[in-house]
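Q: What structure does this chain adopt?
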Amino acid sequence: GDDANEAASALRWLLAETFAPQDLRASSPSCTVEVGPRPAFASAWSSTAVLVAEACGAKGLQRVERSRRYFITPAVDVKKASEALHDRMTECVYDGTAPFFDLKTEPPSKIGTMNLIEGGVEALKKVNSERGLGFDAFDVAYYAQLFAEKLGRDPTDVELYDMSQSNSEHSRHWFFSGRQVVDGVEKDQSLFRLVKATLTKAREKAQAMGREDSSVVAFSDNSSVIKGGSCRVLVPEDAAKADEDSTHVGYGASPLVERTRTLHALLTAETHNFPCAVAPFPGAETGAGGRLRDVQATGRGAHACAGVAGYCVGNLHLPDHKIAGEECTSSLPYPGHLATPSTILKDASDGASDYGNKFGEPLVLGYCRSLGLPDDG
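A:
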């Protein structure tokens, strides 16, 4: 109909190059390798593209994805080139055999159990290796004892995957509240209590000096807040009236007016170690997004002003550029499922900046450190 034609026309105008619209074609010449986002999940880029397209008049779109096509010379191994040209975590190679937007999903399989009671620790080690659960030796021994001796039953596959995710480097913050045993001696405080102790000491010092406590929110919300002061800000006129007159309701669209408000300074951080190691660009993007969510979810909400990013990686081993101390790991193998340190620095930095630019928060400061040492153990 007319609506579909208008949407198609708007989409062609949006996708075409401004000064060469004739280059936009429904099909392209055959290429050797095409890679792009996995079909099962709409990318963040697609979500943004759909919103932009709708704002430009291309209504009714559900998904717009961007792929990359490479022409490979006969002298290059196509398979090796394909593996090097895409991120295996978030992307795949398009070979033309699978439908892109019309995926047929399989119904979920029934919950199964792992034969731990009979197979013992070795059975859990095998499942850990086969399913990539990421349990270390301590985890395997602990979970085997937990189910065999305390619970007296076999774990389900759902429980194993749940423990794998809860125990991952991405979300293992509960580890800081556990018992801390160093050289066989248990410490009086957990790691998290040691962190909290700094605030307790600061409050005690402020009280002794007769100063007011400057901590407004600490260890009780999505972010920490320190005391600020009064300043002149712009607020919606309708909201200002509601503050001045308790009988006024509305909160409709209104012009901005200048008012005096008390504003506190909010500080928050987001760790994204594992996502950035596996897929640096999207890992850093979602890390920045999680931090922005924490800002807006603190108290009644806060305004994002500026971001900082820090990157700590292993030895870089840059081509034709030696860095003192890196020779100790030059002959050691590097995990094939992780991005190299130099790739992390480049792509994660781009990802954090990209997300901030799209949201409207500048990344104003950062640092990077590289260090790698062999594990003699």
